[in-house]
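As described in the Methods, two query proteins were run sequentially through the folding procedure within a single session, without resetting any intermediate state between them. The first query and its resulting structure tokens are shown here.
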Amino acid sequence: MSTRRPTPAVYRRRRLAVLLVLLLVIGGAVTLALWRPWETPEATAAPSPRPSTPDAATSGPTPTTTADATPEPTPEVTPEASPSPSATSIPVCTSGDVVVTAVTDQASYGAGEKPRLSIELENVGDLACAMNVGTAAQSFTISSGTDVWWRSTDCQTEPSDLIVQLEPGKKVTSAEPLVWDRTRSSVTSCDDDRPAALAGYYNLLVTVGGIDSEERQFRLR
């Protein structure tokens, strides 16, 4: 008895069935890989980065406060006159080393104009010297004849020291001028109304580190 062989159509159906099974198996694997309902979003989330401690060398500088809150000027900080650790190890400036000059921004002032006062320092010696140019060592005095009208130290608050090195042959000036409000000063009237200066000629005398300037005359109209 002869065995009947399957027809070509049967072979094709068998191959299609096997192929379908393979596709179902592969599709299920892909579905499982893409959709895993047993995992929560927290389980699949990327790990949070660990906070890093900032490097002390790169942290911002701590703000500091200055001791001097008064408007009195100090000589401008320049390469020729700058605070220096070595300033205290060099000779202290004397009246023979430094010339102090009183400076006004004008020679004559109209009604309501306020004189702006400054200091100029020049080392006329042969060597560098150290000098205290802080507000604690400064004094501006305005007088008319023998009558002293105003002193910068009368109502000064929180005076400070500033030691600088003055190089020979160099000049430095105040960083900010001191403004006179054209009134009479007194240590007992700092918070009171003060008499206004009359029209006339006045003289400005500046002292820095115990060294006096020549008087500079100016006029109020």
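Immediately afterward, the second query was submitted; its sequence and tokens are:
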Amino acid sequence: MAIITEEQESDQQQQQQKQKQKQKQQHSNKTKSKTQKPSTTQPQQTNPLSFWFYFTLSISLVTLFFLFTSSPLSSSSPQQWFLTLPTTLRQHYSNGRTIKVQIHPNQQPIHLFTFQLDPTIPNPSETVLILHGQALSSYSYRNLIQSLSTQGVRVIAIDLPGSGFSDKSVEVSVEGLDGIFGRFSYVYSEIKEKGFFWAFDQIVETGQIPYEEVLARMSKRKVNKPIDLGPEEIGKVLGEVIGTLGLAPVHLVLHDSALGFTANWVSENSDLVSSLTLVDTPVPPSNLGAFPIWVLDVPLIREVVLGFPYVFAKVVNFYCSKRIGGLDADAHRVLLKSGDGRKAVVAIGKNLNSSFDLTEWGCSDRLKDMPMQLIWSSDWSEEWSSEGNRVAGALPRAKFVTHSGGRWAQEDVAVEIAEKISQFVSSLPKTVRKVEQEPPIPDHVQKMFDEAKSDDGHDHHQGHSHGHDRLGEAHIHEAGYMDAYGIGHEPNDW
């Protein structure tokens, strides 16, 4: 009997375990069904405009990021841009003028900034034209210009295209689409131009994204492209400056990388050059300007260098000048950061002539009678002093002198450099310039003028004076002189 009862108890336990397992399975099935019910109803609640909403929102956020990290000078008006400049830059800008140079016949002319001070001697016979080096502008030579002008020499410095206050971009027509990155860039520019909520307004008004309208504008549009010039184009600019300002024959002062860009033009137009002064001009195989353009080209590094004045000043102190002040270094940073300045300097710097043979150039027949002077730093480094000796050896007819500054000598020892240039220029025969006289007025035309004056009398004289004043104002504006705010034209890239 005991055996029978034990078997019955074991059967009852097995049945109870089976019932518990069934209850657990039923409970788990109920929970799964509860979790699956929302997933079946969720697709029915999806908004068809949600994708475009989040897409536009993401583009807008990216746009805001670039707006805050980029320079505010590029998006402001010329007047606002001018007012944000340091005081020294505003003074330099207001004392300059602009001229127009035509590089390509199918493009608009480029506005070129020029700077000069009145010499102490009226109508000086000698004129000096200074061309700046890599990542520099005429602002860097203001003290050198002032020192030279006190010694009776007319001195002019220019900002090459892409640098300083000259145009840094040109407007070109673009047709077709540029792929997904081009479309993204265009959408970014549309939001940047038309506002943060432009796309949302279009959705509310029309109920759809203005896709066809955007495609129509993308298919044919005009964009600002950073200036990208090589030695041939820079030579054209130099020739137009000399012709427009009537400088020929002129004493050329080439600093840093300026020799590599203008050497061919100088040899082909030696009749327009009275003398040549080279100041710390590197040549192949080194052929590198003092300022390293790679720090303006590498992502993240360029943002740090141009975004922090302290970092930029340290780069200048290490590579270019150990005596430059913080405010002056920051002025160079502001000019590089404005508009497409950084992109233009990088693009032009990569076009520097790397196959230039200094020995062959200096010994050519066209330059055999050209007076030359080589001014080189003796205190920068042993390697740089050796480079100066190598350049002097390649130009045996050039006068070789040294200075106590760095590779940006115009920032360190401007007075010393001015004295060496003045002594060299004054040691040469004086320049004789041809003065073009206006042709005489024919007798019958002069008679008509006299009769008109006698008929109109005083009233005509007043009207003539008023018109003459207007003509003078128009002439000044056309010549490119700066107005009270330093804005002589409406540049497309400031």
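The chain is about 50% helix and 10% strand. We note this only descriptively and draw no conclusion about the first query from it.
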